[in-house]
Design goal:
The structure holds 2 protein chains of 2 kinds.
Chain A lengths: L1 E10 L6 E10 L4 E5 L6 H9 L4 E10 L2 E2 L5 H7 L1 E4 L11 H16 L6 H14 L17 H15 L3 E5 L7 H14 L5 E6 L12 E6 L2 E6 L2 H9 L2 H10 L1
Chain B lengths: L1 H13 L13 E3 L6 H10 L4 H19 L23 E3 L14 H10 L5 H5 L2 E7 L2 E5 L2 H6 L3 E4 H7 L1 H7 L10 H9 L4 E5 L8 E6 L11 E6 L4 E9 L7 E3 L2 E6 L4 E9 L11 E11 L4 E8 L4 E4 L2 E4 L5 E10 L4 E10 L5 E11 L3 E10 L7 E11 L4 E10 L5 E10 L2 H8 L5 H12 L1 H4 L4 H15 L5
Parallel strand pairs in B: 3-7, 6-8, 7-9, 8-11, 9-12, 10-13, 11-13, 12-14, 13-15, 13-16, 14-17, 15-18, 16-18, 17-19, 18-20, 19-21, 20-22, 21-23
Antiparallel strand pairs in B: 1-2, 3-4, 5-6
The chains are: A alpha/beta, B alpha/beta.
């Protein structure tokens, strides 16, 4: 589904700002991959580069999604292909209601893929269902998108979007940060209920905590823009116990 | 006719951005170019006006000539343009064959109906279904009025200004110039001298007008100025919502538009006046476009309310300050505005709230969007007179910048002469942020859709004040007007 080959990326227009130093990663259909790493290791950058954030520039390597190179595609085109990024810091958009925003997002995708747009009635039904499912306060979704939302409410709102848009690849960028245990469980339940042989997830996280609820198929440790170790779910538990120290020193030695 | 050729060539130049750039092929009855006393007399004679009105026009003309020979056009606004040659303009143009107004839609020139169709005016049954009465002004003479009968059963008068002069001369004479005197300013004086037609509405005491009254204006004759005069009188305890929307055909030469709107809200009455202004803004390079110099003012008597809402996306130059004179105790004035200046457009717009009565209250919400090399200025005056005990004003002035070559300016004038007054002024300037754009695009919206969503969301406080069908149109207009500003 997703293949990342020797991916290098820097901050745009800044010399010697390389953050990703040759990442290789393959995510197959139906798999859940966790990407763990210390602060500043480049894991958020990787999530954003995958979605095409214009602040970064791919300086080498390639990303293919569904057998198509996507590095020259705009973020909206990637979304139309079925990619989704749950943001660590979702932007606040005054005056735009979540309902309207999600309907437009679905319509844009339908238009791009030549599908029929969902009727307002069907969409309203779907929306209300999902609002209940992710446990977001129904009063909130009548307000401006993310404006005045608490950290936890913003994350639930990201999950709402995930549930409505039903992507084939969902990238969660530290969705667990700032969540209490109850909210964490809701996020995990959302992801678990959406797991299917046709859908893959990349879960970016600093702590193992979220992985108590979402069991990954594969865990990668990212340090200084490189994947230094790949393993099964047990790898996350090791990190939880020993921290990233071991990998930091390895990386420094190889650098 | 040559018009058709002209237009197809000009449309090519525009790259098709201005969607409503077509010209209707209708024979026009033109007076010679230029302005003098004879032209004023001719206009008045063509319209078979009573002597008092001719006299009023002539006084206005005299005042205007003095101003023109003195200081000339007002220079204080933050707008830059080559000036207007007032002797190079047609002051009277009427579609031929309409000297006898059509009695039904069947009598209206089919091509004209087609024009209205393209503009999306719900003139036929759609109008009744939508609950809208349309007084369509085509250049200078009204060609069709709908639902007049239904309204007249309630005693509501809604007709062209010319008809009002003929049929309700007492009302017109009593209120014409009572809010905007013929000597008020340069453009108001010009309008008073040469105004061609416009709309008139009168709502009798205690009557709530059951439908939105609506007028579309359109400038159609090359080089012709259009000078509408609108007068709305809401008698004691009545209510009316009035919609004014306009698009103009594509033009390369600049066209002058100087309208006057007078609102009279008697005791306990309420007038809601909504405008969408979408006249040709000029080409991307700043060539052509409408010069829009408009005087709009309302008089609010005891316990009455006047509310102005405007969405200004068109014109090369917008010079417009819809105002309220709060002369009655407990009267309320409101001004909600979104003004967009893209490419080389210049907008200098705002309001005046003059507090005279006790416990008067005014609210100003102004949203200025600047894109391309556009320049947007908010100019507002809040004046609290000595007798205005406990007056309250809240002003909110927000500017949004799209790109890095545009400008936003805020010029508030505040004059307080009563210590019990309470005034608040909030102002902000922001840019469409990259984070917002990426967020929306990552969900599948194109860059243009994302910009549009951010900007209409930002303007929502104003757009929600518009009647529903107008709100959709306004949002659509913002989108069309911003095309090319993004990327």
């Amino acid at each position: 589904m997703l293949e990342i080959n020797k991916l290098h990326a820097s901050v745009i227009d800044i010399e010697n700002s390389e953050i990703l130093n040759g990442i290789d990663l393959t995510v197959n259909k139906g798999e859940v991959h966790a990407i763990m790493g210390p602060n500043g290791s480049g894991k958020s950058t990787l999530a954003n580069v995958l979605m095409g954030r214009p602040d970064y520039e791919v300086t080498g390597g390639d990303i293919t999604f569904q057998n198509q190179s996507i590095i020259d595609l705009a973020p909206d085109q990637r979304a139309h292909l079925g990619m989704f990024l749950a943001f660590q810091y979702p932007a606040e958009i005054p005056g735009v209601r979540p309902w309207q925003f999600l309907k437009s997002a679905l319509d844009s995708k339908a238009e791009a893929t030549g599908e029929q747009k969902m009727s307002v009635r069907n969409f309203s039904k779907l929306f209300d269902e999902k609002v209940q499912a992710v446990g977001i306060n129904p009063a909130l979704v009548k307000r401006s998108l993310n404006e005045g939302f608490s950290g936890g409410e913003k994350k639930r709102n990201e999950m709402l979007q995930l549930e409505v848009l039903q992507p084939t690849l969902a990238i969660l960028d530290e969705t667990d940060s700032g969540l209490d245990v109850d909210a964490l469980r809701i996020v995990a339940e959302g992801v678990n209920s959406m797991r299917s042989p046709e859908r893959s997830f990349i879960v970016v996280t600093h702590y193992q905590r979220l992985l108590n609820y979402i069991t990954p198929d594969v865990v990668h440790i990212l340090v200084n823009g490189e994947i230094v170790k790949t393993g099964g779910p047990e790898l996350a538990l090791e990190v939880e116990k020993d921290g990233y120290k071991e990998y930091l020193s390895t990386s420094e030695v190889t650098a | 006719m040559t018009n058709q050729n002209t237009i197809s060539r000009e449309s090519d130049l525009s790259g098709g951005e201005y969607k409503w750039g077509f010209v209707t092929d209708i024979e026009t009855d033109l007076a010679p170019k230029g302005l003098n006393e004879d032209i004023v007399r001719l206009i008045s004679a063509k319209k078979e006006e009573p002597a008092w009105l001719l006299d009023w026009r002539l006084r206005a003309y005299k005042h205007w000539s003095e101003l023109e020979q003195g200081q000339g056009e007002p220079q204080w606004a933050m707008i830059d343009y080559p000036g207007v040659d007032f002797q190079d303009i047609y002051y009277y143009a009427a579609p031929k064959g309409t000297s006898e107004a059509p009695k039904s839609l069947d009598e209206v020139d089919p091509e004209m109906l087609d024009t209205f169709e393209k503009l999306g005016i719900p003139l036929q049954e759609r109008a009744a279904l939508a609950g809208v009465a349309v007084d369509a002004v085509f250049d200078s003479v009204s060609v069709a009025t709908t639902m007049e009968k239904q309204l007249s059963e309630l005693g509501i008068i809604f007709c062209s200004f010319s008809e009002a002069v003929k049929n309700y001369p007492d009302l017109v004479q009593k209120y014409l110039g009572s809010v905007v005197p013929h000597s008020d300013n340069f453009y108001a004086a010009l309008n008073s001298a040469v105004f061609s037609d416009g709309s008139f509405a009168y709502i009798p005491p205690g009557v709530k007008c059951p439908i939105e009254l609506m007028t579309y204006f359109r400038i159609n004759t090359e080089g012709s100025g259009q000078f509408e005069r609108t007068l709305i009188v809401a008698d004691k305890g009545s209510y009316v919502s009035y919609l004014e929307g306009c698009t103009a055909p594509f033009r390369k030469t600049s066209q002058l538009h100087a309208a006057v709107v007078e609102l009279v809200a008697l005791d306990d009455a309420e007038i809601k006046y909504s405008t969408i202004q979408n006249w040709f803004p000029g080409t991307k390079d700043g060539e052509g476009g409408v010069y829009n110099f408009v005087t709009k003012r309302g008089r609010a008597d005891k316990n009455s309310k006047i509310s102005w809402t405007q969405v200004e996306t068109g014109s090369a130059i917008t010079w417009k300050y819809p105002s309220v004179i709060l002369r009655g105790d407990n009267s309320v004035g409101e001004f909600f505005s979104v003004a967009l200046a893209n490419n080389h457009q210049q907008a200098d717009t705002g309001t005046k709230m003059i507090h005279i009565g006790k416990n008067t209250k005014s609210t100003i919400v102004s949203k200025g969007i600047s894109a391309g090399q556009g320049n947007n200025t908010y100019r507002g005056q809040v004046q609290i007179m000595p007798g205005a005990e406990n007056a309250v004003n809240h002003t909110q002035c927000d500017s949004l910048l799209v790109g890095d070559k545009c400008g936003a300016h805020t010029v508030p004038y505040i004059e307080v002469r009563n210590p019990t007054a309470r005034l608040e002024h909030e102002a902000s300037t922001s840019k469409v942020s990259d984070d917002q754009l990426f967020y929306l695009m990552a969900r599948g919206l194109s860059e243009e859709e994302a910009h549009h969503m951010i900007i209409t969301g930002w303007s929502r406080d104003v757009i929600k004040e518009l009647p529903f069908e107008f709100a959709l149109e306004a949002s659509q207009l913002l989108k069309v007007s911003l095309e090319g500003a993004v990327g």
